[in-house]
UniProtKB/TrEMBL annotation:
Signal peptide bounds: 1-24
Organism this protein belongs to: Pseudoxanthomonas suwonensis
Domain Beta-lactamase-related: 33-366
Protein name: Penicillin-binding protein
Domain of life: Bacteria
UniProt keyword list: Signal
Gene3D superfamilies: DD-peptidase/beta-lactamase superfamily
SUPFAM superfamilies reported in the protein's UniProt record: beta-lactamase/transpeptidase-like
UniProt-listed InterPro entries: AmpC-like, Beta-lactam-related, Beta-lactam/transpept-like
Pfam families: Beta-lactamase
Length: 520
């Protein structure tokens, strides 16, 4: 049964009245609050919720800002945020529960549960196991096929994902190297649903939310007016936080559910973290806890990890990233969606967990704040602060921009029909579907048939072709590369990023369009 107060607030209150806080605890809480304030001030965040747990107790709960900038409704410990890819650990946990229940095994072939499953290579299809779906070792490129998931809304289904995988060509060998993907987590959700004999959203409620008391979380379709406090995503426009892609009255069942579609509040995320920090918790068997937190796929140790954390190893478990930080074992993950950022950091040997939820452009904010809170947990005498790490991130960004400067597109102009003749027509990619490059009132339009936000205007930049998307929230402009032949049937149209540092989920490199017919 849910506590009368949100979990974090209720437990924190109980601690206050049951045990007077020590001077050290009071100092720690003040330092955490100061770090949150510094982060909000530095990055102009619309809203944030932060919690820290240790030894089974909540030691800090901090919320700032609003659900929607200027709306006046404050963020609270039970405000729902999109946790994005922190969903992956929940999907892995549900699968581990099914292994405990004897419904499946980690080494089951995927086709045992989903006979229609196909990868590009028949050998990979036959040999891919359930475990492989979770550890980013498929041979697919970074974010391959993500355009079937985002931007939302679109009309791709989970069945489309499974059907489309066979058309995505690998860029590496199966099980040889790490490359982050989302589509195979969608497949993992469908494997879980098939093994359990129920839709994935119902399975998550039964196996995760109910036994752990996380009944504030939402998955699948739900009504906004029945969910209480719900944060809306934001982007920065002229230095202000502006809501983007806000929820309607009914939040739909999204295709990416098992990869990044769960929403939770801070109180329920602290329940989730608390379970993992308690090795005796009965939600999972000891064997499955070990399986989830085993290093299954090596990952590169970045220069930042070496310099900031003195890290020596990095690997992916089932839905979690594993590494060492200043001699401590770290289990963590981040989550990123348009206008929503999350971070979960666990230090199991210290029985400490950190949760950060942000409803605005928060990549740098969660990184700097998470680093400070983690260092303070490892060494209470740490003097690290948000300004220091924010400065390092600014320098990283400047160095990256110097190495890969953005192309100058200031000379862009609307393309004319005559000069774009070789591009005009309806084109089709085998997994993304049709895109029409056809005249419209303001020039030449580029419009996806299945992803309505992927519509824009064809521009000329020198000798190159650029797509300027109509919706400003689609923040990855594209170069179109005309067919090498004259645009006739069978010629291939390809796409690439204008900004080499753009969101990898706009996986233009995986697209290859063949011309189908003339414009209507």
């Amino acid at each position: 049964m849910r506590c009368p107060l949100p979990f974090a607030a209720a437990l924190a209150a109980a601690l206050v009245f049951a045990v007077p806080p020590s001077r050290a605890a009071t100092d720690e809480a003040a330092r955490i609050a100061r770090a949150v304030d510094d982060t909000v001030a530095r990055y102009g965040l619309p809203g944030i919720a932060v919690g820290v747990v240790r030894d089974g107790r909540v030691v800090a709960v901090e919320t700032r800002g609003e659900l929607s900038a200027g709306g006046g409704e404050p963020v609270s410990p039970d405000t729902l945020f999109k946790i994005a890819s922190n969903t992956k650990a929940m999907t892995a946990g549900v699968l581990a529960r099914l292994v405990d229940a004897g419904k499946l095994q980690w080494d089951d072939p995927v086709t045992r549960h989903l006979p229609q499953f196909r990868m590009h290579d028949p050998w990979v299809t036959a040999n891919m196991q359930v475990r492989d779906l979770l550890i980013h070792n498929s041979g697919l490129g970074l974010g391959a096929g993500d355009l079937m998931l985002w931007p939302e809304p679109n009309d791709f289904t989970r069945a489309d994902i499974i059907a489309g995988l066979q058309h995505l060509k690998p860029v590496g060998s199966f099980r040889s190297e790490y490359a982050y993907d989302n589509l195979l987590y969608v497949v993992a959700g469908e494997v879980a649903a098939a093994a359990a004999g129920m839709p994935f959203d119902e399975l998550v409620r039964r196996e995760l939310f109910e036994p752990l008391g996380m009944d504030g979380c939402r998955v699948g379709q739900w009504r906004l007016d029945q969910a209480g406090s719900v944060a809306q995503p934001h982007r920065r426009v002229d230095g202000r936080s502006v809501p983007v892609r806000e929820d309607g009255a009914v939040v739909p069942d999204i295709t990416s559910m098992a990869a990044g579609g769960i929403r939770c509040g801070l109180d329920d995320m602290l329940r989730w973290v608390g379970m993992w920090l308690d090795p005796a918790h009965p939600w999972l068997s000891p064997a499955q806890r070990r399986a989830v937190w085993t290093a299954h796929m090596p990952m590169p140790v970045s220069e930042r990890m070496r310099q900031w954390d003195n890290s020596h190893f990095s690997a992916y478990g089932y839905g979690w990233r594993l590494s060492d930080v200043q001699g401590q074992w770290k289990v963590a993950h981040t989550g990123t969606l348009m206008g929503m950022y999350s971070s979960v950091i666990l230090l199991p040997d210290l029985r400490t967990g950190i949760v950060i939820l942000i409803n605005g452009p928060g990549e740098a904010a969660r990184t700097a704040l998470g680093q400070v809170l983690m260092e303070q947990a490892i060494d209470p005498a740490s003097r690290s602060d948000v300004a220091h790490y924010a400065g390092l991130l600014d320098q990283e960004r400047a160095n990256r921009a110097a190495r890969q400067p953005l192309p100058d597109t200031s000379s862009r102009r609307p393309a004319g029909a005559a000069e774009a003749a070789a591009l005009l027509g309806v084109w089709r990619d085998p997994w993304f579907g049709e895109v029409a490059i056809c005249p419209r009132a303001d020039g030449i339009g580029v419009a996806s048939a299945r992803s309505p936000l992927m519509r824009g205007r064809l521009m000329r930049v020198g000798e190159r072709w650029l797509v300027d998307w109509d919706d400003d929230s689609v923040d990855a402009e594209a170069w179109l590369h005309p067919p090498s032949r004259d645009g006739g049937d069978g010629a291939t149209l390809t796409v690439s990023h204008v900004d080499p540092d753009a969101d990898f989920s706009y996986d233009y490199a995986d697209l290859a369009f063949a011309r189908q017919r003339d414009c209507p």
